[in-house]
Write a structure and sequence with these properties.
Chain B: Keywords: Signal. The complex is a heterodimer of chains A (about 325) and B (about 300). Helix content of chain A is about 75%, strand content about 5%. Chain A is mainly α. Chain B has ten helices and twelve strands. Chain B has a six-stranded parallel beta sheet with strand order 2-1-3-4-5-11, with helices on both faces. In chain B, strands 7-6-8-9 form a four-stranded parallel beta sheet, with helices on both faces. Chain B has a two-stranded antiparallel sheet with strand order 10-12. Classes of the chains: A mainly alpha (about 325), B alpha/beta (about 300).
């Protein structure tokens, strides 16, 4: 019995392992260090979004606005770096350093996320609807701010965030690794983590036992917004350019990673570790399909089937339990 | 009190819309404002119409013929008098144009063609196919007719994606020494193109060239190539004529692109609309707007 439940717990890990074995057999380019760093660098953005949204989904919520918040915060980061902030009425102009612009972008993402949480708790708006509205609002704001044009050439210092290596590891991988650590600690070791699971498991029971539901929700949506903003800074730095439509549909890849990782969309069950495996699995799949030069039409079909398969296996296991 | 204001507001809105019907209004309907190039096309069309003294409004079809159809219905019922139109689909958009035609509203297509010669009043088109034939010729020249290359296509199901790719391949495929090792979609998106290029370079360490279906993707591919330290080895080709790419051609980082003229197309379409208001009835069905090759030699002229 023990080995059986262990098997179930690590099924996404087994799926990832199998996928990697298959890919390394069919392509001699897959299992090279260069390519593996590539995959890790490419998934760093999706990882940021996904671990942030995992907390939201654990409370039985969802955050559809992460892609749009990524686009807006990336644009603001680039705009502040390049043009600064002008107050014509005061005859004042404020310039931004790389750190300043990055923090401002994260502040924007956090505020929009907090706003999501506030709307959800204050007016009992379903998270799906509240964050869907935020998706279009943030996307629109990003087009307004950039006037629909990319903001490019942001300087070599800023470019280093996405391009540099530190102790033989790409900086974006360091960043996502540190954030993973923080989120694993939050979910496993803090009372906030326990509150999140409790709310997702049974909100009424959580309320009765005195858990500050409102505040916890504000916090998880704000964290999700903050993580989207960090993703935005990473994408912008990797391209050395902010694209007004950056992050389009990223929320879907992120939800896919979370679901593949075994987190239940109805809340209360799942883990950051699962999400990490899910994100790696999607990244490996994307990379492998291009390495094998699979037709782009088939790529979409294959990705959809993998997600479906992951969820079906998960459901069957829950039933047998 | 609230209700009174509301009614007052409606009344005022009713008044103002009546007044403005005296002077013709121009609608600019653009396939998508998600792509900087189309933003330039749409905004220049609005500016040109305003410069000629007419009120103009911009509509975004979000690459969706159904959204486009809604726009057309609203435009017809709200009394617009001419449409400067960038269609979402060569076949799917014809029905929308015919609706406007029935209502007596002229439609001037910009940049993208529809497969009908008697729907639109006139079509002012960028010659994507011929432009990419020229890119193909330059590609063969720069690679001396042999070597391995990859291609990053635009969006699955988009006309321009295939017009560009076909133009390029009519030339390049004649050279047996040039081998296409990978062909992937970059969705006209800089980030997607960068990631696809990163993976394609892993799969094919020996590539010498990449042709990208637009300049945003050329910039993404270049970013990937530069990070991999292969800018000496891999030659990048784009299409559109974005300022950033022209700059990179001058710096010798990107080899060539095709310069399109969205502002010329927008200006021609706006001028035609105004001539229509003044009584001109016959317009040529197709006005091709040439695409110029930009390479290291010619970049200083752009």
């Amino acid at each position: 019995m023990i080995s059986n439940s262990l098997l179930k717990k690590s099924q996404s890990l087994i799926a990832l392992f199998l996928l990697m074995v298959v890919l390394s057999v069919v392509s001699d380019k897959f299992l090279t260090t260069g390519n593996l760093w590539n995959v890790l660098r490419q998934i760093s953005v999706n990882l940021c979004l996904s671990i942030g949204m995992t907390l939201v989904i654990l409370t039985a919520g969802i955050d559809l606005s992460v892609g749009a918040i990524l686009g807006l915060s990336g644009a603001i980061c680039a705009g502040l770096l390049k043009f600064g902030l002008a107050f014509p009425a005061l005859d004042l102009w404020v310039g931004f350093t790389v750190l300043g612009a990055t923090l401002a972008a994260i502040l924007v993402g956090t505020s929009l996320g907090f706003f999501n949480g506030w709307v959800i708790t204050r007016f009992s708006v379903p998270p799906f609807v509240a964050t869907l509205s935020m998706l279009t609002i943030a996307r629109g704001l990003s087009f307004l701010y950039t006037q629909g044009q990319p903001i490019s050439d942001l300087g070599t210092d800023f470019e280093q965030i996405g391009a540099a290596w530190l102790l033989g590891v790409p900086v974006p991988v360091w960043i996502s690794a540190c954030l993973i650590l923080v989120f694993v600690v939050i979910t496993n070791r803090t009372s906030l983590g326990r509150f999140i699971y409790a709310i997702g498991g049974n909100e009424k029971a959580a309320l009765v036992s005195g858990i500050p539901i409102k505040q916890v929700k504000w916090l998880v949506y704000a964290l999700s917004g903050a993580m989207a903003a960090i993703g935005g800074v990473l994408v912008t730095s990797r391209l050395n350019s902010a694209q007004p439509n950056a992050g389009m549909n990223y929320e879907l890849d992120s939800i896919a990673a979370i679901v593949i990782g075994g987190t239940s969309l109805s809340g209360g069950q799942g883990s950051i570790k699962g999400t990490i495996i899910g994100a790696i699995l999607i990244g490996v799949l994307n990379n492998g399909l291009v390495l094998l030069n699979v037709s782009p039409f088939w790529q979409q079909v294959v990705k959809g089937l993998v997600i479906l398969l992951a969820v079906i296996v998960d459901k069957m296991n829950q039933k047998s339990n | 009190m609230k209700y009174i204001f509301l009614f007052l507001g409606l009344f005022l809105a009713g008044c103002s819309s009546k007044e403005s019907t005296e002077k013709p209004k121009i609608a600019v309907v653009i396939s998508t404002l998600n792509n900087p190039w189309f933003v330039v096309l749409g905004e220049s069309a609005v500016q040109q119409a305003e410069k000629l003294g007419y009120e103009a409004k911009l509509f975004d079809s979000q690459n969706n013929p159904a959204v486009e159809s809604d726009h057309f219905e609203n435009l017809i019922s709200s009394g617009f008098d001419a449409i400067l139109f960038n269609p979402t689909d060569a076949d799917g958009s014809i029905a929308n144009i015919l609706k406007a035609k029935e209502a007596g509203i002229p439609v001037f297509c910009m940049d993208r063609e529809v497969n009908s010669n008697d729907a639109a009043t006139s079509q002012i088109l960028s010659d994507n196919y011929t432009g990419c034939v020229a890119i193909g010729v330059e590609f063969v020249k720069q690679l001396h007719g042999k070597g391995n290359y990859v291609e990053i296509l635009g969006l699955a199901g988009d006309n321009n994606t295939y017009a560009r790719s076909n133009g390029f391949h009519t030339v390049v495929d004649k050279f047996k020494g040039l081998k296409l090792l990978g062909q992937q979609n970059g969705d006209f998106d800089r980030n997607k193109a960068m990631e696809v290029m990163e993976s394609m370079m892993q799969a094919n360490p020996s590539i010498q060239g990449v042709f990208c279906g637009n300049d945003a993707m050329a910039l993404g591919a270049f970013q990937a190539i530069q990070s991999a330290g292969k800018s000496e080895q891999i030659k990048v080709f784009g299409f559109d004529g974005a300022d950033e790419v022209v700059q990179k051609i001058k710096e010798g980082k990107i080899v060539a692109t095709g310069m399109q003229y969205p502002k010329v197309m927008a200006k021609t379409a706006a001028t035609f609309a105004v001539e229509f208001f003044k009584g001109r009835k016959s317009f040529p069905q197709h006005i091709p707007v040439g695409v110029n090759l930009v390479n290291a030699k010619t970049a200083k002229h752009f």
